[in-house]
Design a protein that fits this description.
Keywords: Calcium, Cytoplasm, Hydrolase, Metal-binding, Zinc. Belongs to the SMP-30/CGR1 family. It catalyses: D-glucono-1,5-lactone + H2O = D-gluconate + H(+). There is one protein chain. This protein is mainly β and 291 residues long. It has a single domain (5-277), classed as TolB, C-terminal domain (Neuraminidase, 6 Propeller), CATH 2.120.10. 2% of the residues lie in helices and 53% in strands. The chain has one helix at residues 261-266; strands at 5-10, 17-23, 28-33, 38-43, 48-53, 58-63, 69-73, 76-81, 86-92, 101-107, 113-118, 124-129, 135-142, 145-150, 156-161, 166-172, 179-187, 194-200, 206-211, 215-220, 225-231, 237-243, 249-254, 273-277. It starts with a strand and ends in a 14-residue tail after the last strand.
Length: 291
């Protein structure tokens, strides 16, 4: 086993860094700062960060097949034109819950966008958005809709509702996008914090960022066994994705919001993004939204 190396690479000082996506065509890392209301794009080659301000909380940003990005801003899925920095609303969700906001979102291999909401007073939901912008609600009674990804054969959808302290799986019908047969894959253990963002590697195993746990855990969904723990120098690890030229780098985002003064002084790198090398596994390319 090669030695694992954790390096702070994107000094973004995010309030809530989240939703990393590797863009193969650009060889750049896309991620958001939810509370900072920004979408960031970082190039490892130039070490430059470009940003677009969203004017409201932004839960995720994903590439679109037609160009540009789709992002979850407030309760709206919006189109983002990076060059003009213009945002155009495509569709709204949770219209009956005005204080809710979109949180994590990801695109399935067929171009369908799945995204969830969360709220302070009311519970959130999990939706899918088709290429014609038809919205389907799959789950309600969600506390904090978070990490999501698919198995290698696309027949299983992995999902995290953070406050349940579990990573769950559903049967996934790739034709209809319907979910069924919910079951628990992994229960968080003492000290691991809240399950947050997640990615699936090329071997079908899960990598889950642990908020308030200062780590990313690697889980075999077939057995529910934790295979590995990667410790980071920040407690509020939020999400992760594989990237780099051969997808062997694991990028991990983090948050600084909510740290008190002594925690901030002990965690000077909070809110930055990290690159983990030497894991001996690779990830898979991201999918682009067809809408």
């Amino acid at each position: 086993m090669s030695s694992v190396n954790v390096e702070c690479v994107v000094k973004a000082s995010a309030l809530i860094g989240e939703g990393p996506v590797w863009e193969e065509s650009e060889q750049t890392l896309l991620f958001v700062d939810i509370a900072g209301q920004k979408i960031h794009r970082w190039s490892p080659t130039t070490n430059q960060i470009q940003s677009v301000e969203t004017g409201d909380t932004v839960g995720f940003a994903v590439p679109r097949r037609s160009g540009g990005y789709a992002a979850g801003v407030g309760r709206s899925i919006v189109a983002v034109d990076w060059l003009t920095q213009k945002l155009t609303s495509l569709v709204e969700v949770d219209e009956d819950k005005p204080n809710n906001r979109l949180n994590d979102g990801k695109v399935d291999p067929f171009g369908r966008l799945l995204a969830g909401t969360m709220g302070k007073e009311q519970q959130g939901s999990l939706f899918s958005v088709a290429s014609d912008l038809t919205v389907t609600k799959h789950l309600s009674q969600v506390d904090i809709s978070n990490g999501l990804d698919w198995s290698l054969d696309q027949k299983t959808f992995f999902y995290i509702d953070s406050l349940s302290l579990t990573v769950d799986a559903f049967d996934y019908d790739s034709n209809s996008g319907c979910l069924g047969n919910r079951r628990v894959v992994y229960r968080m253990e003492e000290g691991e914090g809240l399950p947050d963002g997640m990615t699936v590697d090329a071997e079908g195993r899960l990598w889950v960022a642990c908020y308030n746990g200062g780590r990313v855990i690697n889980i075999d969904p077939a057995t529910g066994v934790r295979l590995q723990t990667v410790s980071l120098p920040v407690m509020k690890t939020t999400s992760c994705c594989f990237g780099g030229p051969d997808y062997s780098d694991l990028y991990v985002t983090s948050a600084s919001l909510g740290l008190d003064q002594s925690e901030s002084s002990q965690q000077p790198l909070a809110g930055h993004t990290f690159r983990v090398r030497g894991l001996g596994v690779k990830g898979r390319p991201s999918n682009s939204f067809s809408g």
